């Protein structure tokens, strides 16, 4: 009985996190002068921005090839909310000895593997109506897929959130941070 309650709680948490991830970037309740959705100073890129967002994501993922594991070049490419969430998770880990994020969420792995390291990765928009993108690459064993949100913050494209895990086990990094 206790196991069923825990399982239900975990499933509910994952479902809510997934819904929050995919619905938050499509919020069009506020508009800026160009007609783009805007929430608390963050602008959601529109379809006309797709090529620029692809270039931004290509530059972000090329830092793995050029810089390896050094996070510094990627920090400026993350939104302030995402940087704060990652900092919060790392502080929680050090205070509690709990490894919540023992891998790089942007590559969904602990090591730079397969095609990503050689710069061979695909960038696909998940939905034309929002800011969800998917990065995929081959490891030689499997295809790794990572879902991201891209927004414009202070006139620059930034990664605003990343889904951790796949399918029913996926949760938003921002949602994960808020539960710690």
Describe this structure in words.
The chain has 180 residues and is α+β, with helices and mostly antiparallel strands. It has six helices and seven strands, in the order αββααααβββββα. The chain has helices spanning 2-24, 50-67, 72-75, 80-96, 114-117, 173-178, and strands spanning 38-39, 42-43, 122-125, 132-138, 143-153, 156-164, 171-172. Strands 1, 2, 3, 4, 5, 6 and 7 form a seven-stranded antiparallel β-sheet that branches. Strand 4 (132-138) and strand 5 form a beta hairpin.
Helices and strands, in order, run as: HEEHHHHEEEEEH
Q: Whole-number radius of gyration?
A: 17 Å
Instruction: List the total number of helices.
Output: 6
* End-to-end separation: 25 Å
Strand element count: 7
The gross shape turns out to be globular
Helix/strand class: alpha+beta
Largest sheet: 7 strands, antiparallel
Strand content: 15-25%
Helix amount, in percent?
40-55%
Query: Can you tell me the residue ranges where pLDDT is under 50 for at least 5 consecutive residues?
Result: 1-20, 26-38
> Taking all residues together, what is the mean pLDDT?
77
């Amino acid at each position: 009985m206790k196991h069923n309650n825990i399982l239900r709680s975990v499933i509910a948490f994952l479902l809510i996190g997934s819904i929050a991830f995919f619905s938050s970037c499509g919020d069009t309740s506020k508009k800026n002068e160009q007609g783009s959705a805007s929430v608390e100073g963050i602008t959601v890129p529109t379809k006309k921005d797709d090529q620029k967002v692809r270039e931004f994501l290509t530059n972000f993922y090329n830092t793995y090839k050029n810089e390896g594991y050094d996070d510094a070049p990627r920090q400026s490419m993350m939104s302030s909310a995402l940087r704060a969430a990652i900092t919060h998770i790392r502080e929680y880990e050090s205070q509690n000895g709990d490894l919540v994020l023992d891998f790089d969420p942007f590559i969904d792995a602990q090591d730079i593997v397969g095609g990503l390291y050689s710069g061979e990765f695909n960038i696909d928009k998940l939905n034309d109506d929002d800011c969800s993108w998917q990065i995929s690459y081959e490891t030689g064993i499997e295809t790794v897929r990572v879902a991201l949100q891209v927004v414009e913050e202070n006139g620059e494209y930034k990664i605003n959130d990343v889904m951790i895990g796949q399918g029913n086990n996926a949760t938003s990094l921002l949602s994960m941070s808020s539960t710690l």
